């Protein structure tokens, strides 16, 4: 079978639109319809049925798409990887799975780099993963090109590289009635805390990095965003533990006091992870080099 038939079918499945698929593929809508007709004859199934102003896939089309998706992407990406990737002219789209707190750090310098050296390349950083299984599946299926996370994927077939590390710090509002220019461990655990709910190694970020077992903090509020935590700390007599980059960035806009942790802690690492099937892809090799370049100033951030 002509590989382009399945490629067109894949785009129509993803867009649920003949016209949008035509735009994405750079061909005419009648050409897309002609391709679908050839596939209908091949499989003896209508594949798509009109519903309102759009189209919906048949059960057979859904099953077929699930079967061909991974091998099709391997074939298409394998073909692309044999060609020299030219960032100056490429129109390729790279999908990044990250976390909103990490996006704030890496997306602005990434886009600045893109605008200067690869103006037609697109980046989408719109996927978050809450568990390991989904991360592994999306990398293996090439639904995403790179994962940015605070823990590496240790399963066979995945590669990890440490991008940068940053120090954890304590943040409170200026004018806090008890915390001034320093904080002791006793003071730290006597206060109410905003907990950065994002977990690392089945634990809160801070608890996964401390060297010794510590008393439990008094929880005032828990949030999945460190920026939300910092903004609340600027308004309440609560403490929060966050990365030094976010603390310094938010302190430009908010009246904050930033202090070192009153106990020993490892640095918070950020890794990029990819699947072994991407190793020979020259575009993917460029992508990893770009991330190393745009994050080099984030390495080992300290007060």
From TrEMBL:
Keywords: DNA-binding, Transcription, Transcription regulation. GO terms for molecular function: DNA binding; DNA-binding transcription factor activity. Gene3D superfamilies: Periplasmic binding protein-like II, Winged helix-like DNA-binding domain superfamily/Winged helix DNA-binding domain. It comes from the Bacteria. Residues 1-58 form the HTH lysR-type domain. The keyword Phosphoprotein does not apply. PROSITE patterns: HTH_LYSR (PS50931). The keyword DNA-binding applies. Pfam families: HTH_1 (PF00126), LysR_substrate (PF03466). Belongs to the LysR transcriptional regulatory family. This is LysR family transcriptional regulator.
């Amino acid at each position: 079978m002509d590989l382009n038939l399945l490629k067109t079918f894949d785009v129509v499945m993803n867009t649920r639109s003949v016209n949008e698929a035509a735009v994405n593929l750079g061909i005419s809508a009648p050409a897309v319809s002609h391709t679908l007709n050839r596939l209908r004859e091949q499989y003896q199934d209508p594949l798509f049925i009109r519903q309102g102003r759009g189209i919906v896939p048949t059960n057979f089309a859904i099953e077929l798409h699930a079967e061909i998706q991974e091998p099709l992407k391997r074939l298409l990406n394998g073909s692309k990887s044999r060609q020299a990737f030219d960032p100056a002219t490429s129109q390729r789209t790279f999908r990044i799975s990250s976390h909103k707190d990490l996006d704030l750090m890496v997306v602005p310098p990434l886009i600045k780099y893109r605008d200067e050296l690869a103006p037609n390349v697109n980046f989408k950083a719109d996927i978050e993963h809450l568990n390991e299984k989904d991360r592994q599946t999306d990398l293996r299926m090439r639904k995403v090109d790179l994962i940015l996370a605070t823990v590496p994927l240790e399963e066979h077939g995945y590669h990890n590289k440490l991008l940068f590390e940053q120090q954890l710090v304590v943040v409170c509002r200026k004018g806090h009635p008890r915390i001034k220019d320093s904080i002791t461990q006793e003071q730290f655990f006597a206060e109410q805390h905003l907990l950065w709910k994002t977990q690392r190694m089945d634990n809160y970020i801070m608890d996964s990095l401390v060297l010794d077992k510590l008393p439990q903090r008094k929880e005032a509020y828990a949030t999945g965003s460190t920026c939300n935590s910092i903004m609340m700390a600027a308004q309440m007599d609560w403490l929060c533990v966050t990365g030094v980059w976010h603390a310094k960035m938010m302190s430009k806009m908010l009246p904050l006091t930033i202090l070192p942790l009153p106990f020993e802690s490892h640095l918070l690492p950020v890794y990029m992870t990819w699947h072994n099937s991407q190793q020979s892809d020259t575009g993917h090799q460029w992508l990893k080099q770009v991330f190393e370049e745009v994050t080099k100033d984030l390495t080992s951030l300290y007060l």
